[in-house]
């Protein structure tokens, strides 16, 4: 029996107190949060306008758009999937909602045009976005298509529909007409509650809900299990296909919500709305520490990741950095974050080795 | 051979004891018949043992009973009524639980989350973590283990993971519990605990289906024994009426002793000297704990141990597949300083990996392309690959290893497991190695192919190759090795010459450090 070795590692650890490696580990684990603080401090010192209430409100509104998409994306990525279609669904839903307000539902056979109420337009749009996500999920699970491919296809289809809806033209002036009873769409984007914009409230509410779903509901547990070991999850009785379809539906729902918010903020719907939003959302998720392989990550991390990207983007704009350099810097930050992720994993193994060398 | 006559008693025992029946079940996979007209009766409150060689159809039958696979023909009867199991969920609902051989757990979830996966206890829709944790703690305690329910599963050692898999099955209220090789990673003490739990379950009327390769073990715990060979049922008998030689004869269909014979050889100089090979384990502890040994020219050096003892890690390290490994390696007296896999191949190491399908072969390539993959450099003329040399090298290997293949351009997937394994060996040999690292080279191949692989090993040793032979099959290690090293928990715990090695000695050495319920647990805790 080699009993003498067994208890030593635990005792060693207690004796050593806080070491350099402990500090390194802490810095690496909290990297997204540290990055956020760093970026904020740098921009505050460089620009006096940065930390003004006005600017913070504007930034938060920008962050909210990306964060809402990133929340849906986090669900997808936690299962080990990816959703490339979110930006296109944003555009498609903006165009659908814009069309419903300005043109209504035309039924030439009956010779009538139906103008739905604004709240009905919102419900219809959200349902349609969810359905688009569900279709991606169904294709992925039913026909065993790689998520990258299925959602790439959806990216083109949804963007195509966005263009088709009005032949590539914008729907302007989405304010409705009092006589049709479809006014008030702009409130979603411009309205405040307790002085805070609705989109920011939605971000907060959805983050809290998503946090509870991922940490406290069986569904959330199943999402993590599928990302960690899909086969094991299936053999344990998890309904893998259904869970995945729901996950993509959530992402579609979030995309539709963003589509509505963006159209409402601009009081116009353009077919290219939301172009390449999916990449920013993926970047936020990855920055927040969620593994693209699935099974590891958190909603809190995603929110912080979205803030890092938002603050970085707006900060650079305020500094007058050219948009080309902005892209270079953003790209570098994202790759750097993933490198740090890998470094952390390797460091953990090295720490294990160190501890045992000390032991001997 | 004692008691060779098939006794009808097993077939005609009182019917009311039978809870689950597989009736004339046939399962056809594309290309093979995995099960042919097999009937299997499972008795209430008894341990129903199912044995057979690899590929005999045990796992397929289990998967059918657990709802993972559906039979091509035949029916399943539960309490005399026909049932249809379309998914594992259906089986669970009917009270059929299963402990899988290849552990089906999520490394990214905690112990308690794994135990209750897809069966979460909820309160107002939210997971009731506290009560789950309490139940998990009780289950683990029942298995006399000391595992923290909140620990991440990936941080546990393999034996503990197996305990979790067992706890997961116990967490359901099962009437029928299928155990597929539940003891493969357990120490002797842990097996004792498991057997106590099994007896307790029996007394509550739970029917156990028990699959194992460890024949002594299943005679100890089993009540009824069913033997499969090549997808057919060859015998059914009460455990008290049979003994180990009878089981082997039924399983193999011939006397096992003459299947593999080792040829006496003259050993040469020291070829390989490994000192203090060490590999840390994520989450604390060692995968390899200062391993040192020597290998001579023409020697077959067997490595025996339980699953997770570190044998595969050792050959991986030698092959250069583990960058974190430390320690010194000398080949022909010269230190090996290169660390990457391709450099190690050039210096003379070649690995035949344990998982043939995933790491040994590229499934989309032909037999020939697979064979040449590791040695392509040798066939470059100018910028191009020299077709003719490639072809002649392939043909020569096919002939020497007698790979049964119609044409080297055939897809690799068209070959049987044994012939695929020969292709992997040929791929290694084409790199002109000095040390062959064979990790479980006989896993999942039939008896005939096994003896052919052993024949090849004998021939290579005679040609002064050094052969490291990792195996979990006691009989094979004993029969083939000039010398046997036993590993446990990453360290070498025994060394035996061919003459002095016995099954008992190997098993005892492989259990070193697996103390009753505490061995190694602290490693996991000390992350």
Give the key terms.
heterodimer; A: 360 residues; two-stranded antiparallel ribbon; 4 strands; 3% strand; disordered N terminus; B: 527 residues; alpha/beta; Rossmann fold; 4 domains; six-stranded mixed sheet; 19 helices; 24 strands; globular
Helix run count of chain B: 19
The overall pLDDT average of chain B reads 84
Terminal residue distance of chain B: 53 Å
Major sheet size, sense and barrel closure of chain B: 6 strands, mixed
What string, H for helix and E for strand, traces the elements of chain A in order?
Answer: HHHHHHEEHHHEEHHHHHHH
Distance between the termini of chain A: 17 Å
Poorly predicted ranges of chain B (pLDDT <50, ≥5 residues)?
Answer: 1-13, 515-527
Oligomer class: heterodimer
Provide the number of structural domains of chain B.
Answer: 4
Largest interface: A-B, 38 and 49 residues
Radius of gyration from the alpha-carbon trace of chain B, in angstroms: 24 Å
- CATH architecture call of the largest domain in chain B: 3-Layer(aba) Sandwich
